[in-house]
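Technical annex, item 7. During the second reporting period the consortium partners agreed on a shared format for inverse folding records so that results from different sites could be compared directly. Each record opens with the tokenized structure and is followed by the designed sequence. A conforming record, contributed by the partner at site C, is shown below for reference.
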């Protein structure tokens, strides 16, 4: 199975390295700058599950793609999906499966419009990783999992084939028969975590110490109600885990969105928060905490855009 990993950043670099360690036929689609760095330093992963050092990882630039791949794994920021689709389009053929692990849901529609719904799988990943200044992947926690499946549910030969390839690599994987439910449950958690930590500009522990547990719980309930309105109410265990995670005293947990805000970077506010409100009943008017979160993030984006003007 020929796989194309779109990007060799923290996410793509980690899972791609694990697949290459397992002997899978995987190539990284990278930009020229990252290609030069990887040719000089190789791909290096530091993880409690074992390090990886790949001196000459297989690389390709967009204009060098010469034939379709069996699977294209997409893990870019959701706001970068447009140019990212352009970059890997030459690698998509009649039988290519596209496996996105982006946040939210809107990317499924965008990928389906561009390449055909029949080529698009559902997917999500759970990992905390960053690139350090030397371009090495630093795995920060004990999560390294990918879930994937057919959007219509059930199993298929291509899902089973991907599962067999992933099963040989050193990370957790789940071939889900209801991937949309899993994606909605992650969306509820990501929106709640990003919303409360960005709103409070601190960790979960900071928020709890400040007396914000009830606000966090209300935010989880609002996000879960929107999921239920769309036919994917989170299960009781998932809801309990979400609320417990956002009520943990001393927890250092934050969302990557907050880290991006602290660095003055672009954020996925539209894909994670605004699009969730678009799917709410009554135009989201009955979701006050989520609307405050949205206003806070939009104010950040407005200030960022203003300060970027010459």
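Designed sequence (site C submission):
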């Amino acid at each position: 199975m020929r796989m194309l990993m779109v990007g060799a950043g923290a996410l793509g670099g980690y899972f791609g390295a694990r697949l290459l360690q397992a002997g899978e036929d995987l190539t990284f689609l990278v930009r020229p700058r990252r290609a030069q760095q990887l040719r000089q330093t190789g791909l290096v992963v530091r993880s409690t599950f074992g390090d990886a050092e790949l001196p000459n990882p297989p690389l390709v630039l967009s204009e060098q793609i010469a034939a379709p791949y069996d699977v294209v794994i997409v893990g870019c920021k959701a706001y970068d999906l447009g140019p990212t689709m352009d970059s890997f389009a030459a690698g998509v053929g009649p039988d290519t499966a596209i496996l996105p692990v982006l946040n939210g849901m809107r990317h499924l529609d965008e990928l389906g419009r561009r390449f055909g719904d029949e080529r698009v799988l559902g997917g999500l990943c759970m990992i905390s990783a960053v690139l350090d200044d030397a371009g090495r992947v630093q795995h920060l926690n004990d999560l390294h999992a990918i879930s994937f499946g057919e959007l219509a549910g059930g199993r298929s030969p291509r899902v089973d084939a991907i599962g067999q390839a992933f099963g040989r690599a050193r990370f957790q994987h789940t071939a889900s028969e209801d991937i949309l439910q899993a994606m909605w449950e992650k969306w509820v958690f990501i929106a709640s975590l990003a919303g409360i930590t960005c709103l409070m500009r601190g960790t979960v522990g900071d928020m709890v110490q400040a007396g914000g547990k009830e606000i966090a719980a209300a935010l989880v309930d609002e996000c879960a109600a929107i999921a239920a309105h769309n036919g994917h109410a989170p299960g009781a265990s998932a809801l309990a885990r979400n609320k417990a995670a956002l009520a943990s005293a001393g927890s250092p947990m934050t969302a990557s969105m907050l880290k991006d805000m602290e660095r003055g970077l672009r954020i996925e506010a539209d894909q994670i928060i605004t699009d969730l409100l678009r799917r709410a009943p009554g135009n989201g008017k009955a979701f006050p905490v989520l609307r405050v979160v949205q206003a806070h993030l939009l104010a950040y984006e407005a200030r960022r855009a203003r300060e970027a003007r010459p």
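The mean pLDDT is 96. Residues 179-200 form the longest helix (22 residues). All partners now use this format for quarterly exchanges.
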